[in-house]
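Example record

One chain of 138 residues, shown exactly as stored in the release files.
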Amino acid sequence: MTTATSEQQLRDNGLRVTATRLAALEALAQHPHADADAVLTEVRASLGTVSVQAVYDVLHALTDAGLVRQIEPAGHPARYERRTGDNHHHVVCRSCGAIDDVDCAVGHAPCLIPSSTSGFTVESAEVTFWGLCPDCQH
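Predicted structure tokens for this chain:
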């Protein structure tokens, strides 16, 4: 993804274009499923001194705008990714915590439609597959 594209996405979603937002988007393009500390490290490598709070604020704003998706595998810190707006899930290694994307195997979101909502208004659903990554299987 180019910087010009990221700038336009920020503007299209009502966000100001800032160096920290652009650096965070670039970090997530290069490192999908990064946690906030990894994004902070990448942003600091790109821009120099940036506060922890600034990166958390940026991740929150990008998530609220739908430019970034936050996932929270049980027992792991929140992770962030640029891949949004499609029907995909995640597979997580129980040993090392590696995460990868898994496309829904059954088509257009049938696995995300509950048989009963018990009166709830369902806004989203997550499916997480757990196992061992290839490196941890040996």
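Notes: The mean pLDDT is 90.
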